[in-house]
Design brief:
alpha/beta; TIM Barrel; 8-stranded mixed beta sheet
């Protein structure tokens, strides 16, 4: 399936894609950096509209999203391609794949809500590869999902223009964004894009302009983004720009792909990152990809009681009532429409 793309302009015989900060100017028959947006006769075409590579039913916690409808299931789907080329990508088989390489199946956007409801899901997540480059399909599927009363989630690298975010904004409830470093040098070497600035700026806009629930993930890679200066920079930005109730997930790196020569993140580094986040004023800093008891629990900052206990994807949310601490009534920045299970 193909569809004429949104957010582009003519540039002579080339087309100028306005969706992400790669700012591609694409010659006739060429494709952008993402590999899925093509200049066909002077018009930009979205090659993967309606084509999915992966579909699953996941706990919302797997995204990871901890403070939006905890305990619910999300219908998760993705396609191929990416706006970045990260050296540690664990989904590289699809993020570096091109349309036509096989394994893609058609899923019309209007079919997504029915499948989600049939599988007991309360929401739909666009994930696995970078969903920003799938924007035309995301908009249509998210619209259909919201009409059916389902929430919507973007699991994204956050590399998007203001125009791109504003296209998605009315239709997305959760912006789960990776912040992979805190300087342009890291983003150039690790992700092969020019700057971290659009990621940070659009995360703030997602919250302030569009009222999205935002959670941040940093996969901590030894010698790449594990310095105290980097972690303090990210933690301070989350606290100051997104708010102290914003969850920050600091996750363990494992040797993979272009970075297979590096060791796994030491446990002590994850513990230090949590300390840095808490010292910056963040109330909810979670350690991921590692079994450290208590480090994925939501603790009330006022009374110290466990509000949501987590072990893997099993959760005990008996300390939560309508988004506040059941023990002392403190608001926690959690979107939760249901009573504890």
């Amino acid at each position: 399936m193909t569809r004429e793309a949104l957010l582009w302009e003519s540039d002579g015989e080339r087309v100028h894609c306005l969706l992400c900060p790669n700012d591609c100017r694409i010659a006739v028959d060429g494709r952008g950096t993402c590999g899925v947006r093509e200049n066909r006769g002077g018009r930009l075409v979205a090659l993967t509209y309606g084509l999915v590579s992966s579909v699953a039913v996941d706990p919302i916690e797997k995204k990871p999203v901890f403070h939006y409808r905890p305990g619910t299931l999300v219908f998760s789907l993705g396609s191929v391609g990416c706006s970045m080329r990260c050296g540690h990508c664990q989904n590289w088989q699809i993020s570096r794949a091109a349309p036509g390489e096989g394994g893609l199946e058609e899923l019309p956007p209007e079919a997504v809500p029915d499948l989600a409801v049939r599988h007991g899901c309360a929401g739909v997540a666009f994930t696995y590869n970078e969903p920003v480059i799938w924007a035309e399909y995301v908009v249509d599927a998210a619209r259909a999902a919201q009409r059916a009363g389902l929430y919507t989630v973007m699991v994204t690298n956050g590399y998007i223009t203001e125009a791109g975010l504003d296209l998605l904004g009315p239709h997305i409830d959760v912006w789960r964004v990776d912040v992979k470093g805190f300087d342009d040098v890291t983003y150039r070497s690790l992700c092969h894009v020019r700057s971290v600035a659009p990621v940070l700026e659009m995360a703030v806009r997602a919250k302030e302009r569009w009222g999205m629930h935002v959670e941040v993930v940093t996969n901590i890679i030894p010698t790449v983004n594990d310095s105290d200066d980097t972690l303090q920079g990210i933690a301070g930005w989350v606290a100051g720009s997104l708010g102290v109730d914003t969850p920050w997930h600091v996750t363990r790196f494992f040797p993979y792909l272009d970075l297979a020569h590096l060791p796994p993140t030491p446990i002590a580094t994850l513990e230090r990152a949590r300390e840095i986040g808490l010292a910056a004023g963040l109330r909810h800093v979670f350690a991921g990809n590692v079994d450290l008891p208590g480090t994925e629990d939501t603790i009330c900052p006022a009374c110290g009681e466990t509000v949501i206990g987590r072990r893997g994807y099993t959760i005990d949310r008996s300390g939560l009532r309508a988004g506040v601490c059941r023990h002392c009534g403190t608001p926690l920045g959690i979107t939760d429409d249901d009573e504890p299970l």
